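dumping this here before i forget
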Amino acid sequence: MAKPEVEFTPVSSVEFTPCDPPIEGLSEAILARDDESDAVTRILKFEPGTDTSPNGPLRHDFWEEVFIFEGSFVDQRLNKTFKAGDWATRPPGMEHGPWISETGAKMFEVRYYSRDGAGHE
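structure:
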């Protein structure tokens, strides 16, 4: 089934739940999911003081597009701060993170696979 059709709806109507794997202070609100393709649209929330370093850097087999709309965090690998208004497009296999957010942050994120289902070439 494709992502559901949803007319404008307040984000506050979607519950934040712990991410998998769980990291203290990191949660997500799934806005839409396509169970067949596993494409996901979500809000990712960093509470103040969140540190994702226990999970180390990430790599995954899907495309990821993110837009920070509130707060900031430090990418520990790059030693660089990213803040509201910054965005990224990550192809499958791209290394990113870990992060620490002293003040908290929220990101809008879309994850999807290529049409042919292939990962990073």
